[in-house]
Amino acid sequence: MKLKTVRVTNFRSVEDSGKFNVGDMTCLVGKNEAGKTALITALYGLNPYGDFSYDRTRDYPRRFVSDFDERHPNGKSRVVKTVWTLDDAEVGAVATAFGDATLTSRDFGMEHGIGYSGALWSVSIDARAALEFLMGKHQLDATERAMLKDAKSAKEAVTAIAAVGQQSERLQALNAALVALREQNFIHAVIDIVAKGLPRFFLTSHFNRMSGEVSINALNAAKATNTLTPSDSIFLDFLAYAGRYVR
């Protein structure tokens, strides 16, 4: 899966970043205290590699801390909202479990924040299509399918099967498959499949500084002898980013 867009709200110095796109490489450029580290830290908290959780006192914008309860009566303040897209392997894993028609979009959303018990997922699926696939997998006949014609979810299907006095082995096998789903919910089952590919974020605060003065001759000499300093490399990277090079 790949991260597509990010939006950060009410986190430290960032009140609302607006939605921005994320590519294979994304660079945040701004003055000191502009909120670059806050943005990265907010994203880190979505699925951190280390021990981290959003904290109301530490992370909510200080000038609004006293108004938190008024602004968020439910005690929750979203910090980061993201959109991701699944790769072919992940789409294939869902199709193997529930059929090609279950996923209605490769894109899915995730958000997390202060007061959340965990990240919230938003996945677009056709639950009826998933049920139809499982009915076919367990070879239900026309009569058995008719018993489930009004079921629009796994839980409704389980209830409908429970109402059948004498269940065939096929119905019993389908029921076992549905009961095995987390909370008897197709959305949760799909999330459990794709969550295996969700990356953990690693955050480091180490950085290098660019020199205040640069000698082109010295840079060329350092390049020739492979003795560039970290500050020299930063300068050259910025030049390359702007489409310019030292010759």
From TrEMBL:
Transmembrane stretches, start-end: none
Organism: Candidatus Burkholderia verschuerenii
Lineage, highest ranks first: Bacteria, Pseudomonadati, Pseudomonadota, Betaproteobacteria, Burkholderiales
Pfam families: AAA_15
Domain of life: Bacteria
Protein's UniProt name: Endonuclease GajA/Old nuclease/RecF-like AAA domain-containing protein
Gene3D superfamilies xref list: P-loop containing nucleotide triphosphate hydrolases
Domain annotation Endonuclease GajA/Old nuclease/RecF-like AAA: ranges: 1-44
